[in-house]
Amino acid sequence: MSHFAPFLQKIRKHGLTPANVICYLSQRCPFAVGLFWGTLRLRLKAALFGVSLGEKTTAHGTVCLMRWPGGVIHIGNRVHFISSWRRATASSLCAPVKLRVFGQGSSISIGDGCELSGTSITARSTSIRLGKNVLVGPNSVITDSDFHAPWPCTARSENPGTERDREVVISDYVWIGMRCIILKGVHIGTGAVIGAGSVVTRDIPPYSVACGNPCRVVKQLAPPVAEKQGLQDRV
Ligand SMILES: CC(C)(COP(=O)(O)OP(=O)(O)OC[C@H]1O[C@@H](n2cnc3c(N)ncnc32)[C@H](O)[C@@H]1OP(=O)(O)O)[C@@H](O)C(=O)NCCC(=O)NCCS
Question: 99, 110, 134, 161: which sits with the fewest CB atoms below 10 Å from its CB?
Fold first, then answer.
């Protein structure tokens, strides 16, 4: 009841119609329930599957954790996973967040304060590291492998090989737009912005805006003052 009186006051103050109120509640209620169940399920799965999970990390909707024996998944503090169309802001989600590592040597590490929205990350035989406060827009894919060898063509499926797999590093404060693909071996520097729909095949320097397929730098951003004073590119 303690919340009800201020809520009524707000309705009167803003002159809201019943339709406005119903519309608002129809978004807020499933939102709260989705966050509660998503986070509970993520915590249970992480404990059962041997995935390390930081404090205050939350999930809205299902997060698929797929860890083959030997693979490592580490999720930092205050990470937020958006796996539901209700919570996704700019786009509907094609699929829930998926973190998948294969066996020995493969790892995914997600730094503190990251936000992932319907993102698929697959580390087949190397590592994929996201630094702190990385934002990944809806429906992006990050992977360390091509999964099939280009040659010989007859052995693409039977003998895919892992020798061409390369680690991926996404540094602190990177913002990846919606529907991007980050391919093997890429290092994205601190604070860079990757435009929507980009296919990133080569390294992207810190504090740049890069877009397109293939993704190329279109402009340079000014680093924050602390960085200018000599702090190094982290991760
Ligand atoms: C990357 C982005 C933020 C850059 O915005 P901006 O700083 O206003 O950039 P501009 O519009 O000045 O574009 C600079 C150049 O890059 C090009 N460009 C911008 N975004 C592009 C994209 N996604 N793909 C290809 N080219 C792009 C522009 O056409 C322009 O080229 P030109 O100089 O030849 O005309 C924006 O373009 C973008 O992709 N926004 C989507 C963000 C998103 O996905 N949000 C989802 C929620 S997290």
Answer: 161
Domain count, the chain: 1
- The verdict on residue 202 lying in a domain is yes
Q: Name the residue range of residue 70's domain.
A: 8-221
Residue 228 lies in a domain: no
Q: With 60 as the cut, is the pLDDT of residue 161 above it?
A: yes
Supply the pLDDT for residue 231: 54
CA of residue 75 to ligand 1 center, whole Å: 30
CA dist 63 and 118 (Å) reads 9
CATH number, domain of 36, equals 2.160.10.10
The per-residue pLDDT for range 27-44, each reduced to its tens digit, is 888 888 889 999 999 999
Residue 235's pLDDT is 46
Q: Which residues contact 41 (CB under 8 A, 6 or more apart)?
A: 59, 62, 63
Going from the Cα of 205 to the center of ligand 1, the distance in angstroms, rounded, reads 16
Query: Is the CB of 179 inside a 6 Å radius of any atom of ligand 1?
Result: no
Is 233 among the domain residues? no
For the question of residue 60 being annotated catalytic, the response is: no
